[in-house]
Design goal:
By secondary structure, the chain is mainly α. Among the domains are: 84 residues, no CATH class; 288 residues, Alpha Horseshoe (Serine Threonine Protein Phosphatase 5, Tetratricopeptide repeat). Helix 16 packs across helix 20, helix 20 packs parallel to helix 22 and helix 22 runs antiparallel to helix 23. About 11% of the residues have low confidence. Its main location: cytoplasm.
Amino acid sequence: MPSEGRCWETLQALRRSEKGRICYHRDWLLRGEDVLEECMSLPKLSSYSGWVVDHVLPNMQENPPPSETSTSPRSTSALGQPSFVPKSPVRDPAFSPVSSATPDGTKDKYESQHTEPMVLQSSQGIKVEGCIRMYELLHRMKGAEGLRQWQEEQERQARALSEMASEQLKRFDERKELKHHKEFQDLREVMEKSSREALGQQEKLKAEHHHRAKILNLKLREAEQQRLKHVERERLRKEEGQIRLRNLYALQEEVLHLSQQLDAADQRRDLPRVDLSAFRTRGNQLCGLISGIIRATSENGFPTAEEQAVAERALQEMRDLLVNLQQEIARACEDRRRQDEEEAQVQRQESQVQQGPEVRKEPPASRQGPGGKLNEDLQVKVQDSTMQWYQQLQEASSQCVLAFEGLSNSKDSQAKKIKMDLQKAATIPVSQISTIAGSKLKEIFDKIHSLLSGKPVQSGGRSVSVTLNPQGLDFVQYKLAEKFVKQGEEEVASHHEAAFPIAVVASGIWELHPRVGDLILAHLHKKCPYSVPFYPAFKEGMALEDYQRMLGYKVTDCRVEQQDSFLKRMSGMIRLYAAIIQLRWPYGNRQEIHPHGLNHGWRWLAQILNMEPLSDVTATLLFDFLEVCGNALMKQYQVQFWKMILLIKEDYFPRIEAITSSGQMGSFIRLKQFLEKCLQRKEIPVPKGFLTSSFWRS
């Protein structure tokens, strides 16, 4: 725009004017109001005027500026003025206080030649100019001094720092060298220590090597001695095995000879009513047992002492079997002879009757049972063979008592002490048998077996052995068998589960020590005749108390025990017997047959069903026997067993119910419900407390 152009032209003109070229200080107001007052005050000389006259004016007079030589009307007129305003010290360094302060004055003279003419205007101005120059001089002097001191201080600090750095470097080098020396010393000490330890370890290893070498030499000598002993034992074992093998062959030959005699006796045709097949069957079983032992011996080497003992027992049983067969044949011959005599007598009587008047006789009416079925009479007494077996066991028990009679009736204190120790050693372990862990049961069995084997055992803090007295073994066997039966009478009667651990120990002892088993049966038959089964008959002239004792009742001071207590004891002993016939010691020889196995249980069940039932007793014993042993019999005989159960239900229950009063129906109802439940499920349950494989791992 035109107006804007004119503004800029105006500003340029003002800048080129005299006032526009004046230099202004922005900080002049900071100096105070004295600056303006100087213009309004009257001129007067200051205290620095003398210094100016002495130093400034003489220089100006000696060296007048060139401008003074050329006079002009204007300069002449100017001389008439009081003074000229000097130039500012800042614009002209010729008037610097430092240059005028030099002592020789040469520099001042040089500077004065270049200074402009200067006329004092007023005393105030001179004072100000002098103050300014003195201040500048002092300021330069102070600055130079301060700079010099600062340089000296910096140099001093630099030297101090340099010295300190050099000292620290020396200390660092010294520490570093000391550290190296120390590390080297430590390393040397460690190496020396390691070498000492290595030498000590080497010496120790040498000593251990020598010691081990001695031990190895001793072990080698011991091993050689053991090898020689083993060779000797093996030689003796082979010799004994060969002797036992020859004896076993001799036993087999004798058994086969006896078996031939049994077969010859069984083939007799003059005894058509006598069944001798049981003797022949048992003889064949014994022959098979001997043959099995010899077969196992041929596979394993030589027969053991236990196998020889089993073979000897089989031979003895074969001999007894032949004797029983001969007795049975003799009895049958006697019966036939008696029958022939009776038939001859009847024929004679008939011939006499035919000669007289004929008399019509009516045949007696046959008795019929309920439902119109023929009610055949069952046996009341036991079979002759069973009775003979019962008497043999009682006779063996009596002979055992006579064998240790001297020990039991001895008045010697030492003998009494031995008897007491042996009785405790035999009975206390049996008392400790209960539903405990299998490992504890094995300890008890091993202790009883060691005692019967003649080894010393600990009892009451003393060492006891049957070898302390010649009659000790008989005494221990008798007391041990008595204690087993007593445990069944008391412990099993109260806790039915205890029958199985007691039975398994008794079965294991029976297997290793057959005489103990015979004594157990003798005690059991004596206290519980129903375990035969045997119903003692009342004989003429016998006291009632004696008869009740024969039946198994306890009679104390002419008082007979209650029926519940009697049944409880009988139940405990039957349960123990039922457990024994089905259990075997798990750590025994499995090749041998059970010394009194399930076949005896089957025989007992068959015989008791062939006998007339007893009120309250038969039902109780059948329930206890089947609850404990029914599962094992079911697995062994299967279909035949269930036929037996149906026979009990259909034929035997009515007989029991017919003789049982209304107040004694509890045992009968319990047996009936048990069998009906088993027939419904088609299974006999496993008895409570039966020993499983987990029991023996505990």
